[in-house]
Each structure stands twice: as C-alpha cells, then as structure tokens.
Amino acid sequence: MPSKPAPKSSSKPKPSVAAGPSGKQNGHPATAGGVATAATRLEKDTMGEMTVPAYVLYGASTQRAVLNFPVSGRPVPFAIISAYAAIKAACASVNYRLRRLDKSRHDGIVGACRLIAGGLADHGGWALHFPIDVFQTGSGTSTNMNVNEVIANLVCLAKGKPIGSSKDAEYLKAGGVHPNDHVNMGQSSNDTFPTAIHVAAALAIHRDLLPAVRRMADKLEQQARQWDKIVKIGRTHLQDATPIRLGQEFSGYASQLRHAEQRLVAALASLGELPIGGTAVGTGINTHEQFDALVCEELTKAFQTQIPATQRRAGGPAVDGPHFRPAANHFEAQHAKDACVEVSGQLKTLATSLTKIAADIRLMGMGPRCGIGELVIPAVQPGSSIMPGKVNPVIIESLLMVCGRVIGNDAAITYGNLGGLNSTLDLNVAMPLIAESLLESIGLLANGCKMFTENLLEGLKPDEARCKSLIESSLAMCTSLVPVIGYDRSAALAKDAFKQGKTVRQVAIESVIGSPSLSGKIVTRADIEAALDPWSMTLPGGEGSAGG
Fold first, then answer.
1. Domain membership of residue 29 as a residue range
2. Which of 19, 121, 207, 507 is the most exposed place for a label (fewest CB within 10 A)?
C-alpha cells in the first residue's frame, strides 16, 4: 500500500511505566511497584512479564527496547514504519495466496497495515506506538517486533478484543492473529528491515527527489537558453580567463543535474532488488520458495500509479512507480548493505554538484557594488541586525549546509557497511543507522532542490552591463591575440596593459597595429578588433595556445 508523509503525532504525555513483580523492568530500576495498574497492562514475551502503558498498541518486546535504548530520543523514521506496513501486508497476501494464512487473518493484517500507513491518527498518532530509538539493535529486530505487535493488537481491537489478547490461547484458537506466527510468517527481521530500507528509499527518490532534480534541471536549461547571448569573463583558479557565455556556464549546471537524474534512476534499480525471502541468514528457512518473488510482485503493484493519458510519453508506460524484484543473491543482500552505500554515493555526488552550482552563483552574485556582480540574487529577507539594507545569499547558504549534512551522512552509511565492524559474517548490524542517514539525505536533497529552484533560481537575473564591462577590462583578452602576434608578445602586452592601467585592446591598438604578425602580414585595426571580439572567443576555432 502506498506510503504517506509522516503524520503529526499526538502530544499526549505518557504515564509512568509500572514495574513488574521483581520491582525492575528488564534489569532497569522500576518507577513504581506492583503489577498492572489503571494506567498499565501486563504483557508477556519469551523473557517474561512486562508492564506496558495501557493505551499503546505495542507489547512486551517493544517495551523492553524502549527501556534498553534511551539514546537519541529519535524514533525510527515514519518512512521505514510505513514501508514495513506495506511489506507486512504484501507478506500476508502472499501467505494467503500460498494457503498458509486464512482469509480472516489475512484481512485483519492488511486492514491493520492500512491504518499504520495512514498514521494511526485515531490512536494518537504513529509515534506514540513506534517509540523505539533509532540507535537500537543493529538488525532492526526491535522495530520488526514493534510492527508485529502493533499489527496484532490492531487486529485485536478490530475483533472487539482488548489490546494484549494476541497471545491468549482461546483468542488464537478462535481465529486471532499472533505477532510472530501470523504477522511475521515466512519472515525475519534480518530480511524485512533491509527490505524496508530499500522500499522507503526507493519511494522517497521516486516521489520526492527525482521530481525536484528534474524541475531544477528544467529551470537551469531554460536560463541557459535565455542567457546564451550574454558574454562574460571566464575565470579559472579564481583569476580572469577567456570569455564565456553565461548560457554556457548554466548549460554546465543543467548537465550536472541531468547526470544526477541518470544516477538516481540507476539508484532506483539498485534499491529495487529486495532481500525479502532470505529470512534469518539468507537461506530462506521457514519460508516458501516462491515467497520472495511473490512479495516483490505485490509491493510493485502496491506502489504503482496510473499515468493520465495526457501526460504519457509516446510509447511510454501507462503506470508509474518503482519496480521491485528478488535479490539475485540473498546472502549478499543480507550480509552487507552495498546497495545503500552505492545509493548514498550517488546522493553525495548530487550534493557536490549542488555545492558547485550554489557556490558559483554566490560568487557571481557578490556585491551588490563592490564584488563581481554579474548576477543579481533575489532578496528574500533582511541580512543583518546591525547593517541596514544588507541582503545576504541565505538560500545558497541553506543549500550548502544541506549538502554538508548529506556528505556527513555518506560517511555514516559507509561506516555502517564496513566489514569486521557492522557487516560481520552473515548479517549487517548497523541497519537503523543506515536507514535514518539515507532517508535524511534523500529528504534534505529533495527539499533543498525545491527551495533553491523556487526561492533563488526563479528570481535570479543577470546584470548584462556588468558582464560586458568586466570583459573589456580583463587582461585574459590577450589570449585571442596569440594566433596574431604569438604567445610571448601577447604576454608582454598583457603585462604592459596592467602596468599602464589600460585595457588589452587599448595597448594592442597603440603598439601592435603596423607591426608584422606571425604570418608576416602587417597587423591592421580590423585584425585587432576581430581578434578581440568577445563573442568569437566563446566559440571553438582559431590557432595557437589557448592558455590554461
């Protein structure tokens, strides 16, 4: 089932968690003695009894994780929870198709998954029921158990039974849903959590990041066309170089984004390969041999949307959405997270492209009077609390910080896949770290591109007069004289122009006209003007050294 943006969760305070009979919970000092109270209920798992807040949908395993991992206060992202709901629904549908799950249990599980994907607004919001810290067990087992417990308890409520009935023998005998035996049938945390990472990341790229990158590329291409007649001075090593057209520079920026688009499409292909079906260590123990392919088929269908006929490309598909397929090798898919490192590398590449584009525009927009000033950056807010009238390139600064975070996240994802530390023998054990970092990078880049396009590129303007004046005063204009008078004479002419405070054109007219050219012909005024035409310098051709 399609996922949605994270809904707002309830701000309802959580009551104190009462202690079990030992006066402790999971080895932690208890906040209250006794057993279940009006604010709590008593639940059991394989380790014994736990008291759990009465109103939450999770059970004992989740409560243990809440107590075990009080680290960051940040829960696993909703995108992972929503992807998990889609995975659990797909697994239930496949188990029903394989006649391993009856229709009533299938319907109950799928219905519960729809509620989770919708954000559980009627139950106080999703965050209330999925509280486990992102820095938890490295396989994501705590989150998988959390999802299983919430689904099972939602089925309890749908059947008119109290929360916590999911392990009651009579309830189960009458058709109830058990969190492990039914919700987790044919699955393991070790294949479902990495599958959730792939599904959540693929959806975020497909729905958010790719459209934002394409829109930014479209705008840059439009500006490249509009500004292709504006000639300005080029700069290499932050020093004056030969002329270039503003449109040419922006065509380069647009090309960077089109290459980013291609990389993101490749990322979707890598993320489309799912570990589901490998269960514990990749062997597929306790699952049907067709389970992986059938689940991938269900997930692909769940996220496909119909493309209106008016928006379809000629010969293009009628549906849109990521395509999922079973892992080519389940041992690779579960023992390491190479695909996540690959995708993060592509996101990092996009981040560096954006730093190039944003920083260049900031440099060309320096001013407004005492800098380069070839571009006029839109004013969006006052820039100083002490300097009246100052306006700063704040949109650029925001995007540059986004890129810094993405580059940092890439380091965390890389660390999360290192052998001997996290990808150890038959399982990667840094998956929650990888999940949060990857999804944050995708979200930041999508929002950053959207912000930059709307709040900067849409209002960006060139200062044509400034571009023209800087060209004429540049000493690098002498480069086009090399085919006429040679490299050494051109270099000497540039030095003379700098010493005299004149333009290259002025010194050339004064000292070169009437002298022999490299070919032996006498240089005329027309020769100088033709050589020093800025537009011709932006085109390929000519002879001699081009500098550099």
1. 24-185
2. 121
